[in-house]
Amino acid sequence: MDQAGERREPTMRDVAALAKVSTKTVSRVINGLPGAGQEVVDRVRAAARTLGYRPNLTASSLRRSDRRSATIGVLFEDLSNPFDSALLRAVEDRARQGGVLVLAGSSEDDRTLQGELLVSLAARRVDGVVVMAAGGHQDALQQERERGTPMVLVDRPPTFGSTDCVTTTNRDSSREAVLQLAALGHRDIAFLGDRRTLWTSQERYTGYLEGLAQAGLTLREELVRTDLHGADLAETATNTLLDLDRPPTALFTAQNLVTVGSMRVLRARGLQRRIALIGFDDFPLADMLEPGITVVRQDVPGIGRKAAELIFARIDGDTSPPVHAVVPAALVRRGSGEIAPSAD
Amino acid sequence: MDQAGERREPTMRDVAALAKVSTKTVSRVINGLPGAGQEVVDRVRAAARTLGYRPNLTASSLRRSDRRSATIGVLFEDLSNPFDSALLRAVEDRARQGGVLVLAGSSEDDRTLQGELLVSLAARRVDGVVVMAAGGHQDALQQERERGTPMVLVDRPPTFGSTDCVTTTNRDSSREAVLQLAALGHRDIAFLGDRRTLWTSQERYTGYLEGLAQAGLTLREELVRTDLHGADLAETATNTLLDLDRPPTALFTAQNLVTVGSMRVLRARGLQRRIALIGFDDFPLADMLEPGITVVRQDVPGIGRKAAELIFARIDGDTSPPVHAVVPAALVRRGSGEIAPSAD
DNA sequence: GCCGGTTGCGTCAACGTTGACGTAGGAGGA
DNA sequence: TCCTCCTACGTCAACGTTGACGCAACCGGC
Questions:
Q1: Using one digit for the tens of pLDDT, what is the confidence trace for B185-236?
Q2: CATH 1.10.260.40-classified regions of chain B
Q3: Which residues belong to CATH 3.40.50.2300 in chain A?
């Protein structure tokens, strides 16, 4: 068993020799193509079983006219992030239905790294890629797209043309969140957001502004904190906000980790039942906290399914105009977003 | 740009023609092999750039003597599970350092599905696989291993020989958790576990038994609930336990979702500060709950790194005897596991 | 008997790349 | 001067598979 590794993988030639037919006939049998009699089919199948033959998809895709590798690439920011991994899972499920496997990579939101991974995927001749574009210029993505690689962007739209993309209702749902807070009587609603280079951050901020405007509230610039990359920065920002002379009575945290950071501070100050909080993006156990955290929940599996659907359609030759699919998010009320401003 | 998709990818032959050299020379230049003069190197590089040539790794690995595809397979239970995705990320990081990409799949703990995915990976001639074995017989894995495919199992050991594996200190850490509860004075400590077919469940149960024995406590069989596959079953089981005439004063929940289910029930009954709880496996926000949840934390990145290290060593021809690496877990005290039995 | 069509195979070359090997020309030594 | 060695290329075949095509045998119809 130890020297098993040295054994050469059997090929069609080996099967052909054993079954006393040509390799072409083996190919026909393996691929279920017509042109082989029942007796020959049986003989070839038996020979393949005996030898433990398994087709070599790389050789096959090299020779086939359609050049399919039955493999797609997925390039997300961080595969260990729950949002990303849920997305990956949804894409994977859909891919499996077509016998397609997924080459997965984390770009760390680094353009250089994303470019390198893209090259790696291209070298393996993947049939298409699903990408969460790294911040900043998308030249590498654009180049790849212009070469003709089927591509779908998720979470963030392309800065170039002719490319499908799937996002959620960042702006509308943010506005809805702010309007709900305003309806409760809040007039000092803070915005805490992620890096401003991210399209999603910008959209959510715009939604915040629209919400304020629609509720007839004036923007207090000192209540806006952005570029909070990670929970630690969010904590600091939250502390600063709460130390203002006229602190906010409600927080809209426009990203996952920011929500966690803010929650931590509210809790540390014992304010979790006095200051309202709505976060963008759901997270596990949000309902188990006290109070439960009201969030805008994205339909992550829905986004993944849509992205997969689009990429496979393109791979199958769909040449209809590019689509920007928007998968609706929903406000999930759990308590923290239903706190009215305190009377003091 | 739209008909760009029809453009054929340039090959070495195209580059060779433009640079007026042979394809072999192009090969030499692309791979940085000696045997090409500076002037020719420059000419070839220029031609490759002009044409936008990119090497075809599938053709290359077909022809090369080492047969490497620079791709490994990762087959976990559910890529959207935080444990699995953290593991994937760790493996991916290590793989990237060697220019290796990862084909990822979810087996859903279904042997049939795992077998099919394994065949898919084999068809793509991956250099090795990292697998979380699905419950029950591991025949498909064993067969693949016996063919010589480098393989590392994670989280659960193989039921067959000659295969590396990486697990955590399931038994020891479980015993430690039970001993801590016993030291606080608990005499009725319940065990709530996942499917008994899982090796980890068995190990954790054994650790529980060892803990009881070491503390001089007698096992009360009615306090042991297993096969709790998912949070819902865990809730039911917890309710049943709490309704006993002599209910447990402490719970040891031997899996993530089981912990969540039990927490939910304790909370619903207002017992979260009266009944002690220690869970196996950490989860996000465990520290934000009230009380914080005491858990046994696995070193997930550590496990992933170790698995990656092993698989790449095997791929590189390491033939030393198979290893069962054990990455230590640690008890993280947050409050729920430090509750003494109530005096009533 | 001849013709056209179908069935059931086989032969050959090619996909893009690289290993084995060949060779021309120059450098260097005896 | 000749022989050897090295450098810098080129030629050829092969990796495992499949598309294009060929061809013999058989069928049915007239």
A1: 999 999 999 999 899 999 999 999 999 999 999 999 999 999 999 899 999 9
A2: 2-55
A3: 71-167+300-327, 170-299+331-338
What CATH number is given for B71-167+300-327 in this structure?
A: 3.40.50.2300
Tell me the chain A residues in contact with residue B264 when contact means C-beta distances shorter than 8 Å: 288
Is the model's pLDDT at B7 over the cut of 80? no
Candidates A6, A54, A119; nearest CB to B123: A54
**Is the CB of A1 less than 8 angstroms away from the CB of B96?**
no
Q: Distance between CA B32 and CA A286 in Å, rounded?
A: 54
B278 band by pLDDT with thresholds 50, 70 and 90: very high
Closest residue to C10 measured CA to C1′: A22
Two tokens at B272? 């979260």
Residue B216 to chain A, least CA–CA distance (Å): 35
Helix (H, G, I), strand (E, B) or coil at B1: coil
The Cβ of residue B232 has, within 10 Å, a number of other Cβ atoms equal to 12
Residues in reach of strand D, judged by a CB distance below 7 angstroms, are A 8-9, 11-13, 23-24, 26-27, 30-31, 55-56, 59-60, 62-65; B 20-25, 34-37, 39-40, 59, 62-63
Q: pLDDT tens digits for A84-136?
A: 999 999 999 999 999 999 999 999 999 999 999 999 999 999 999 999 999 88
Cα–Cα distance, A94 to A98 (Å, whole number): 7
Query: Residue B130 pLDDT more than 80?
Result: yes
Write the pLDDT tens digit of every residue in B279-335: 999 988 898 888 999 999 999 999 999 999 999 999 999 999 999 999 999 999 999
* CB–CB contact A7 B78 (8 Å): no
Q: What topology is assigned to B2-55 in CATH? A: 434 Repressor (Amino-terminal Domain) (1.10.260)
| Rounded-to-integer distance, Cα A59 and Cα A56, Å | 6
A326 touches strand C (CB under 7 A): no
C-alpha to C-alpha distance for B235 and B257, rounded to whole angstroms: 10
| Protein fold of B170-299+331-338 | Rossmann fold (3.40.50)
Q: Are A35 and A28 in contact (CB under 8 A)?
A: yes
